[in-house]
Amino acid sequence: MPVLVITGTGTEVGKTVTTAAIAAAAVAAGRSVAVLKPAQTGVRPDERGDADEVARLAGPVTTLELARYPEPLAPATAARRAGLPPVRAPEVAEAAGKLAAEHEVVLVEGAGGLLVRFDDAGGTLADVARLLDASVLVVASAGLGTLNTTELTARELRARQLDLLGVVVGSWPNEPDLASRCNLADLPVVAEAPLLGAVPEGVGLLRPAGFRAAAPSWLARPLGGTWDAEEFAVAQAAE
């Protein structure tokens, strides 16, 4: 996992906290980690961005943000409205490649979903993954509606011949409903890829030390953790 591209099925699905958990697990294993945020939107110059939040939670990681736009919009739209240069996929891939030359793990966190546009030419995170020949992790929501958006994302990745490493539920509810519990079995079916974790709701509010200690328990082995999908599903069904 030298470079892993992390996308979501939409906004507010837990990409940043999931990225932080993966980074924390890698740091705990003694690996050097870099986190690249190609385009940060909806944040003022003096505010903390997603990469900053990953570093706060995960510990000693290198962070790099290529562009920042003040309005909470898709990067292409935000750049155009701000009169600022857009981020382009080749620039993102180049930055990730340089980080990979100096770090054992590079996590590239996208904005929104897989096909959110970086620029008016239509460059996306999928193009970044292709240029890097990198695997993609999809962060999905837990409840009703997630199967459709997850399957659409997975189909697009396969159509582009990109490797889908798996799916992580980015915010597992404290009180999961029937749809959420059923989705534990259905998500890997529609994605045709393994379920690789379930990050508990609200863990971004933990103290960093507590977050770092618990992070491996939310992630499966391919992501550096100890979480087991079958055991988790059995435990949830029993509650």
Total DSSP helices: 9
What shape does the CA trace take?
Answer: globular
The largest β sheet comes out as: 7 strands, parallel
* Helical content (DSSP H or I, runs of 4+): 40-55%
How widely separated are the two ends?
34 Å
Query: N-to-C SSE series?
Result: EHEHEHHEHEHEHEHH
**Structure class:** alpha/beta
Q: Largest sheet, order of strands side by side?
A: 3-2-4-1-5-6-7
Q: In words, what does this structure look like?
A:
- The protein is an alpha/beta fold and 239 residues long.
- The protein is built from nine helices and seven strands, in the order βαβαβααβαβαβαβαα.
- It has helices at 15-28, 50-58, 75-82, 89-100, 125-132, 146-159, 178-191, 208-214, 229-238; strands spanning 3-8, 33-41, 62-69, 105-113, 135-140, 164-172, 195-200.
- α6 (146-159) links the parallel β5 (135-140) and β6.
- α4 crosses α5 (125-132) and α6 packs parallel to α7.
- It is globular.
- The mean pLDDT is 96.
